[in-house]
Amino acid sequence: MTAAAATTVAFSPVRCDIPASNDGDAVPVVLTRCSRCKLRDLCLPCGLSGRDAERADELVYTRRRVRRGESIYREGDAFVSLFAVWSGVFKTTQLLEDGREQVTGFQMAGEMLGMDGIGPEKHSCSAVALENGEVCVIPYSRLEALGREVHALQQQFHKVMSREIVQEHGVMLLLGTMRAEERLATFLLNLSRRLVARGYSPSEFNLRMTREEIGSYLGLKLETVSRAFSKFQDDGLISVEQKHIRILDIAGLRRRVGQKLEP
Amino acid sequence: MTAAAATTVAFSPVRCDIPASNDGDAVPVVLTRCSRCKLRDLCLPCGLSGRDAERADELVYTRRRVRRGESIYREGDAFVSLFAVWSGVFKTTQLLEDGREQVTGFQMAGEMLGMDGIGPEKHSCSAVALENGEVCVIPYSRLEALGREVHALQQQFHKVMSREIVQEHGVMLLLGTMRAEERLATFLLNLSRRLVARGYSPSEFNLRMTREEIGSYLGLKLETVSRAFSKFQDDGLISVEQKHIRILDIAGLRRRVGQKLEP
DNA sequence: CGCGCTGTTGAAACTTGTCAAAGTTTGTGG
DNA sequence: CCACAAACTTTGACAAGTTTCAACAGCGCG
Question: How far is CA B37 from the centre of its chain?
């Protein structure tokens, strides 16, 4: 199954010692190379070629393992680096003063984490692993410096940030104008689209998040999410076995969202 | 009153002809200078000093008048420039395929518009003036080029984009976890805070948007917004006379949002 | 001066949340 | 490997909050 293929490591990390960088991180690390990474076309260096692609290798010196439930950074932490998901699925969550929490996003391979920290110089949300995974650490000072030299990298970075803004507009639309079932359908279609881009099946996947986390993201209670799943199943649009989802009628699912949402 | 002061033009535009720029805009324009602008500490060049501030003058060659109801750009338009609000209030709106529309933000002096366009290379929302106003046109290619030379400008730009992301997370929190009254209270507090930063009264202002636009932004129907206004008035938190709002008890308003939201 | 847009308010309908109970799966430790 | 506890999911009944529909008032523009 394709799912297994993409989890396979198409990459051999090479141990080496890196001289102390000027941002205070001087431990022996795993050398990673963006130019050889299986995710290069999904990730920040997407579109870079030739010399530019090689220079992108200077971006990432460490890849960090994160175990299920562990966080990459927490709300309030000083901002130092961006992170690119290499494997696993993550969620970002934000707290309201009175303790209410919301999931503001789910991130999978190739997606960037931490851009919220640049402006305030500290993270405004927490990033938590939903399963064991790895993230590439991109020291922000390095990205800034390299961006000035490698024009295409700078552009790429701006595009990534911009797309983050666009995507959040989409979530605002979802939260502001859609009903429960429309929200869930949109969520499933979005997930499907992103999985396809990563070489997985568009119609069959395992959710890494709980009903509660989905609900939090969609502005719904977990019971409502559960009911919507059941409804879709009763209507023959999907089959649900706990976290295992099969999309049986993708067109029907799209019709549940007013009309269609992704082409 | 402070409101009048900030509308006054503390700046004299100078007519001049600029040679054709390489992004196809060759009409006679108004020369503007960021380094002398009354908004420089609120806007993109915030924090630049000395030589850097002067170089920022190369960023903006035109300021564009936009009349109430007119749009700066529309969803789908090719992306060429960013815009900085110089005067007036704007809204950004996004459409859902079935015709539902949502207001995704309100922008006032010093705030940037158009960053959603960088990634997709076309605008993913429309920007419309709620009253007559002016925007500074920042050709994106120029910002990119100048950013490579003026380090601090580049950093500033990244911060602006990042803050946009953070702010949208805030809206997601609002839409995903708050009730009608909490949403409106948050909206009013946010407005008040931004007005203060611009030298206006924190407690008395005129809304430039209709109840429907507020509702759209907050994910509510206009009737619900109207009722929440009335409730706040009955409770002595604010006074409402059509669009004229006076905040009578800002602490009380904060208490309506679970606890507090802005310090 | 009147028409249209905007805003307010009431009552009924609908959607989602809340509470509760029970079933299922997962993980842990003996 | 089994037993048990904890976490997660499903479902029902009812409550609460918001929308919908409707009527009317006020303001502002032509």
Answer: 17
Of A118, A147, A159, the CB nearest to B162: A118
**Alpha-carbon span B139 to A163, nearest angstrom:** 19
Q: What are phi and psi of A86, to 5 degrees?
A: -105, -40
pLDDT in tens, B120-149: 999 999 999 999 999 999 999 999 999 999
Query: Nearest CA to the C1' of D18 belongs to which residue?
Result: B224
Distance of alpha carbon A169 from alpha carbon A174, whole angstroms: 9
With beta carbons under 8 A apart, name residues in chain A contacting B168.
165, 168-169, 172
The amino acid sitting at A136 is C
Residue B4 has pLDDT above 90, yes or no: no
Distance CA A206 to C1' D12 in A: 28
At residue B97, the pLDDT reads 83
Report whether A49 contacts A96 (CB < 8 A): no
**pLDDT tens digit string along B185-230?**
999 999 999 999 999 999 999 999 999 999 999 999 999 999 999 9
Q: Helical H runs in chain B?
A: 2-7, 50-55, 140-149, 151-177, 180-197, 211-218, 222-234, 250-255
Give the CA count within 13 Å in the CB-facing half-sphere of A2. 12
Q: What is the total residue count of chain B?
A: 263
User: What are the structural domains, with CATH classification, of chain B?
Assistant: 3-150 (2.60.120.10), 178-256 (1.10.10.10)
- Contact assessment for residue A110 and residue A43, using Cβ atoms and an 8 Å cutoff: yes
Residue appearing with tokens 């004229």: B244
Q: Give Cα B201 to chain centroid, integer Å.
A: 18
- If one counts every other C-beta atom within 10 angstroms of the C-beta of residue A53, the result is 19
Dump pLDDT digits (tens) for A49-83: 888 888 989 899 899 999 999 999 999 999 999 99
SS3 (DSSP) at B15: strand
Question: Which residues from chain B sit within 8 angstroms of residue A138, using beta carbons?
Answer: none
Instruction: Quote the CA–CA distance of A103 and A93 in Å, as a whole number.
Output: 4
The answer to whether the beta carbon of residue A212 comes closer than 7 angstroms to any atom of strand D is yes
Q: Measured between CB atoms, does A233 come within 8 Å of chain B?
A: no
Nearest neighbour of A104 by CB, restricted to B96, B159, B172:
B172
